[in-house]
């Protein structure tokens, strides 16, 4: 359970970072 929760948290952080990068690129392009 602890390992799964940690993995899920890491995936969430990774997706958050990618989302922030994507939004920044979209803003710059526009």
TrEMBL record:
It holds the Pfam family Nuc_H_symport. Keywords: Membrane, Transmembrane, Transmembrane helix. The chain crosses the membrane at residues 7-29. InterPro entries: Nuc_H_symport. GO terms for molecular function: nucleoside transmembrane transporter activity. It comes from the Bacteria. GO terms for cellular component: membrane. This is Major facilitator superfamily protein. It comes from Escherichia coli.
């Amino acid at each position: 359970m602890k390992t799964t929760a940690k993995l899920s948290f890491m995936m969430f952080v990774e997706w958050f970072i990618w989302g922030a990068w994507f939004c920044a690129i979209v803003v710059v392009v526009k």
